Amino acid sequence: MNASRGKLVVISGPSGAGKTSVCRALKQHPDVEFSVSATTRAMRAGERDGIDYHFLSREDFQRRLGENQFLEWATYNGNLYGTPRWPMDQALARGKTFLVEIEVNGTRQLRERGIEGLYVFIAPPSIDELRRRLLNRGSNDIAEIEQRVRIAEDELAAARETVSGRPLYDVTLENRDLDETIARVRSLLWP
Ligand code: 5GP
After folding, report:
1. What are 119's strand-pairing partners?
2. Does the predicted TM-score (pTM) go above 0.70?
3. CB 111 within 8 A of CB 163
């Protein structure tokens, strides 16, 4: 590995734990580039195609999957999500910190393939607090919120897993206070 090669940072954790807010703050740093995932889920109000996600039809996603275009991919709540492969290679070759925000199954794929990086899990203080945050977000209906809470319970258990004798995540941060969590992630990235 050459000395100027950048670093992969994986930010993961349940929906509503605060990882998107953490990533938004990290993106302000000039050395950080951010992965724009592909997804088949419907666009939410305020989201922009090509910026928040590449919104794809299921057929288009599956075609790209067949062409091995994704570094990892997963099904989450019935929709497909995947990280395009090439932006990471290009960013790391330019010495950038490459930030990937993904759920647990995708993280496991990266670990299993021995992809080096800093793997961070952002946890909510409690499931009740997570539900409250998802409700406040107002962009999901009640059934979807309950489904996300159920997925979160599995994700919290998965966060304690090991892969080939190594913890799935290098660090788990409980997000009680957003500014404090952002400061802790920053100190991990730029000690
Ligand atoms: P949302 O629908 O709330 O935007 O995302 C749902 C979940 O999918 C979140 O946990 C988010 O981090 C995750 N996710 C977003 N993009 C990707 C991706 O490219 N790969 C994987 N494995 N998960 C993703």
Report:
1. 10
2. yes
3. yes
Q: What is the pLDDT of residues 109-130, one digit of tens each?
A: 999 999 999 999 999 999 999 9
List the one residue out of 87, 88, 77 whose CA is nearest residue 141.
77
Q: What is the dihedral of CA 134, 85, 94, 164, to 10 degrees?
A: 80
Determine the atom of ligand 1 nearest the C-alpha atom of 106: 22
Query: Residue 180 in contact with residue 21, Cβ under 8 Å?
Result: no
The pLDDT value recorded for residue 4 is 76
Which residue stretches of the chain are H helix? 19-26, 58-66, 85-93, 104-112, 127-137, 142-158, 178-189
Pocket of ligand 1 (CB under 6 A): 15, 37, 41, 72-74, 76, 81-83, 101-103, 105-106
Atom from ligand 1 closest to the CA of residue 35: 19
Model confidence at 3: pLDDT above 70: no
